[in-house]
UniProtKB/TrEMBL annotation:
Name of the protein in its database record: Sulfurtransferase
Protein's organism: Microbacterium galbinum
Domain Rhodanese: 16-133, 161-272
Origin superkingdom: Bacteria
SUPFAM superfamilies: Rhodanese/Cell cycle control phosphatase
InterPro entries in the record: Rhodanese-like_dom (IPR001763), Rhodanese-like_dom_sf (IPR036873), Thiosulphate_STrfase_CS (IPR001307), TST/MPST-like (IPR045078)
Keywords of the record: Repeat, Transferase
Xref: Gene3D superfamilies: Rhodanese-like domain
């Protein structure tokens, strides 16, 4: 089954009375709290999910901007959303699925049946479906999660990864090359990493391109079925989207959740610049 559901498919599931919980994960670097936009209009019944506090935790700068939450923290959040064992969770956002993919990546590890809505809230509205403005607070769920973390790399594992696989830097090319760094103290990339921005896999509406095109993009950096792959970005959000895309075409990928925000805040870590892995 695909990792994605269309707006019409989601609408049909809801009309059929399927056990579906929809979560609104609106988050962007320039607007990390999307609650106000959620209140302006969201999929009826959708629960707002604050990425920074429920899909991440907070610590020292050397841990990165979005360290993994504990399994206990994630389980409390999932229950707050009203999720029970066996429920289908559909995540969406208004940023081409980048934030929703963080939910997908964590919940999949936890054993939840989770999917991402194609086109996000804009796709839902464009398909002619209604929105609501209520601040949803459902009855608490009872879901029990599996331990998370097996799909995550530590900083040392990320450093060693290029020796045995392809480490993808999925940020914009100018950040990879070290020409600009708007958020972190050092510009550049992890030595050995290759650049393949996750946005290359999407159309203008944020929908994933056809599988043949995605595989062709991956082949340009040496990735095919069976290749060991890991991804990082600025803080572990966009990299989860790359993991989602790769999984959709049958390729497993690990994620370095600390990403560049952890690497650049850890003294002694080498930095490469330019358009080559280094």
């Amino acid at each position: 089954m695909s990792n994605f559901v269309s707006p019409d498919e989601l609408s049909d599931l809801r009309e059929q009375g399927a056990p579906v919980r929809v979560i609104d994960v609106r988050w962007r670097l320039d607007r990390p709290d999307g609650h106000a936009e959620y209140l302006e209009g969201h999929i009826p019944g959708a629960v707002y999910v604050p990425l920074d506090s429920e899909l991440a935790t907070h610590g020292e700068a050397s841990e990165g901007r979005h360290p993994l939450p504990s399994t206990e923290t994630l389980q409390r959040a999932v229950r707050r959303w009203g999720v029970h064992d066996g429920d289908l969770v559909v995540a969406y956002d208004d940023a081409k699925g980048l934030a929703a993919a963080r939910a997908w990546w964590l919940l999949r590890q936890a054993g939840v049946d989770v999917h991402v809505l194609e086109g996000g809230i804009r796709g839902w509205i464009a398909a002619g479906h209604d929105v609501d403005t209520a601040d949803e607070s459902p009855e608490e769920g009872t879901a029990v999660l599996r331990e998370i973390g097996d799909d995550a790399l530590s900083i040392d594992e990320a450093a060693a990864f290029p020796a045995s696989g392809v480490l993808l830097d999925v940020r914009a090319p100018e950040r990879y090359r070290g020409e600009t760094e708007p958020l972190d103290p050092i510009a550049g990339h992890i030595p050995g990493a290759v650049n393949l921005p996750t946005m290359l896999h999407l159309d203008a509406d944020g929908r994933i391109l056809d599988a043949a095109t995605v595989r062709a993009n991956l082949a340009t950096v040496g990735i095919a079925e069976g290749t060991r792959v890991a991804a990082y970005c600025g803080s572990g959000v966009t990299a989860a989207h790359t993991a989602l895309v790769l999984d959709e075409v049958g390729i497993d990928a690990k994620v370095f959740p600390g990403s560049w925000s952890q690497w650049s805040n850890t003294p002694g870590r080498p930095v490469a610049t330019g358009d080559q892995p280094g």
